[in-house]
Write a structure and sequence with these properties.
About 90% of the residues lie in helices and about 0% in strands. It is an all-alpha fold.
């Protein structure tokens, strides 16, 4: 049971790093391309990005945990 929890926590950490890195890259892409002209648009995009991260990181953690288990087997 403790090993399973350890794999989940490791998967959660990997998913958080991957999610935050991809969000930062996407944010920098939008800044370089000047997609958002108004402050309201920039704020709306940041809220959307935050919501996407809050939903996908816990789900992706199971996928990363499965990858860690397969790699250690």
């Amino acid at each position: 049971m403790a090993d399973l929890f350890r794999f989940y926590i490791l998967g959660l950490a990997l998913a958080a790093v991957f999610g935050l890195a991809s969000s930062i890259i996407w944010l920098l892409f939008r800044v370089v391309r000047r997609k958002d002209r108004l402050a309201v648009q920039r704020r709306s995009f940041l809220y959307d990005l935050l919501m996407i991260n809050l939903v996908t990181i816990p789900v992706a953690s199971f996928a990363f945990a499965a990858l860690v288990i397969m790699l250690q087997a």
